[in-house]
TrEMBL record:
This is Sulfotransferase. InterPro entries: P-loop_NTPase. Pfam families: Sulfotransfer_3.
Length: 265
């Protein structure tokens, strides 16, 4: 791991990314770094730290801070991270108001993230990063990427069982299947933009079976102690029918060797 290039964990919803992010957060903390679980700071800066905002000398630290604290991130050191993020956002806003911000908005965004995450290795998991891949790649061109995917039938069944108040979560198998296909296809369209040495694609089923040596090598940390409890849920759930788009996306994942054959009879 390096202190300058973030590790970004992405994957469609209900693919095990939050559980994996928790393990990465513990591993990064042990190595003197910081990995947030749903920190979403770059995602918010994408919307509030724009060139027109900077030209108007009007960056909105209050809006981003509100979004960060409304549903705060978790993971090792997340409270300290949140305090640093507030300070970094205020500093950037004041620089912009006085005309002393970094020349390019992207430079200012990188500075805010560096100040929030500190001098050690850093990273974040946020599923919605799949919707901003080209922008993230342009802003953090040396970022390393972890893509985690789960058998779509399992992911969709989990989406349909999600009980929390999430109005954006589909409540039908057809809609959930289409959403899984669209989000996953965003990664498939993007992956070639990143050199193979800076991306790793993981099958949730294989990870649950203990195949995490490649990931440990990729992040330069032994993840075995942190993934000891990473297990597939054994509960039997009805398998929803996949839409044609989801079937096509799954076939491409299998063809590329990203997704193995973990479908249960």
């Amino acid at each position: 791991m390096t202190p300058t290039d973030p590790l970004l964990l992405v994957g469609p919803q209900r693919s095990g990314t939050t559980a994996l992010a928790g393990a990465l957060s513990s591993a990064f903390a042990a190595a003197g770094g910081c990995f947030t679980v749903n920190g979403k700071l770059p995602y918010l800066l994408r919307r509030w730290w724009t060139d027109p905002d900077a030209e108007a000398l009007h960056l909105r630290a209050d809006e981003v801070t509100h979004a960060l604290t409304r549903i705060p991130p978790h993971g090792d050191g997340s409270e300290e991270w949140l305090a640093r993020a507030r300070t970094a956002l205020l500093g950037s806003t004041r620089r912009a108001a006085h005309g002393s911000a970094e020349p390019a908005t992207s430079d200012e965004i990188r500075r805010v993230c560096a100040e929030a995450y500190g001098p050690g290795p850093w990273g974040d998991k946020y599923n919605e990063y799949l919707l901003e891949l080209p922008w993230l790649h342009a802003t953090f061109p040396n970022a390393r990427w972890v893509f985690l995917v789960r058998e779509p039938e399992e992911a969709i069944a989990s989406m349909l069982r999600w009980q929390r108040d999430k109005p954006w979560n589909p409540d039908s198998a057809s809609a959930a299947s289409a959403k899984w296909a669209h989000w996953t296809s965003r990664w498939l369209a993007f992956r070639a933009s990143v050199p193979a040495r800076r991306r790793i694609e993981l099958d949730y089923g294989s990870l649950c079976e203990g195949s995490h040596d490649a990931l440990s090598e990729f992040v330069c940390v032994d993840l075995a102690p942190h993934l000891a409890g990473f297990r597939r849920q054994a509960a039997d759930r009805p398998r929803p029918e996949l839409c044609p788009e989801a079937l096509s996306v799954r076939a491409e994942l299998v063809h590329r060797g990203v997704l193995g054959d973990h479908r249960r009879d």
